[in-house]
Amino acid sequence: MINARVVGSATSTVKHRSMEGFRLLVVQPYGPDAQTPDGDPLIAVDTMGAGKNDNVMITSDGRAAREVLAAENTPVRWIVIGICDH
Question: What domain range includes position 7?
Answer without folding.
Answer: 2-11+18-83
